[in-house]
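Summary for the funding panel

The consortium committed to producing paired sequence-structure records for every protein in the target list. Below we show the first two records in order, beginning with the earlier of the two.
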Amino acid sequence: MGLAPILQMETREFPAWLQVLLKEKFFNACLDHEEEKKNEKNILCIDCCLSICPHCLPSHTSHRLLRIRRYMYNDVLRVEDGSKLMDCSLIQPYIVNSSKVVFINERPHSRQFRGSGNFCNTCDRSLQSPYLFCSLSCKISDVIMRQRGLSGFLCVCISLNLTDDEGGVDMFLCQALACTAATEIVRKKRSSLSSTCRRVTTAVSSANTEAPANFFNRRKNTPPQRAPLY
């Protein structure tokens, strides 16, 4: 089973974010940030079901985010990140920057005669033992063929933070969170300052309104002053 039949499954069985993960062309320039550096769309927002670049992060800080990486000119994801969303076991991993990664899609190769050895259950690519799949899409194809669905393959993931190559919180996400927090602080300060200014303006207006009345009352109750006679 190729990728096309997989993407034709009903949406309720095949989540939209997984369709985007399998068919999206990552690492293209972000059209919303054409003038910015490092504007490759290498992040998948699970909640919005779209690919974004690091400069888009301020609008997605509270969403589940999955970073896509490149290895041998192909899209990969960290096993640690992907395992929070789906079952990545039995997919042959590779080491990139001390982290295990798996290919997202099947890579082109010439199918050889399948003799003795270990091969991908879907595309017959030669593998190391004990792995059964060369990529995420190959495993999904096998799961659907055997189970007629993705039951037991997908995981419940409530939170998924963007990580760097070492597994820590991503720098761009930290900057986006800091920017969002700073904006909120400025907004609250402006709101507080505006409220204070309104109170001061009201008090001054009230004082100015009462001043003439008090002045005239004093003039009314004070006997007129006459110039002395010589």
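The next record, for a separate protein in the list, is shown here:
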Amino acid sequence: AIGEGQRYIQNNAEELETLQDDVCSFGCIILEALMGSKLHRKGDPFILSELVMSLSCQEEREHVLDPVVLGTSSQDSLSMVVSITIKCLSVESSTRPSIEEVLWNLQYAAQVQATADGDLRSEVSSQAC
């Protein structure tokens, strides 16, 4: 019976590790969406740790992120997405967020963006009057 308990713990640890790897992979997908064609234009293979450092620095973000993303995203929404992306890409798997936390943050960032878009639309329509 002890062996089965150990196997259960080992299987759960492996499953948790797999989930953390999935979170990291999802972070890579978000990173690709944020960078767009810049990711593939660089020519050199990118080093993930350097990209994460660039994302962490507000001034360097403009050089790393796709101009379309920068031009169409509110600062608050973009900061939330970048922040959760950086957490997903953490080298230490135990510090990565759960997939539920990632999804919650992305949904919240989408709400913030929708509010900013609504504010922008009402600003434009009030200027038209």
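Regarding this second record: The CA atoms of residues 52 and 86 lie 6 Å apart. The helical segments are 2-35, 38-41, 48-56, 58-64, 67-72, 75-88, 99-128.
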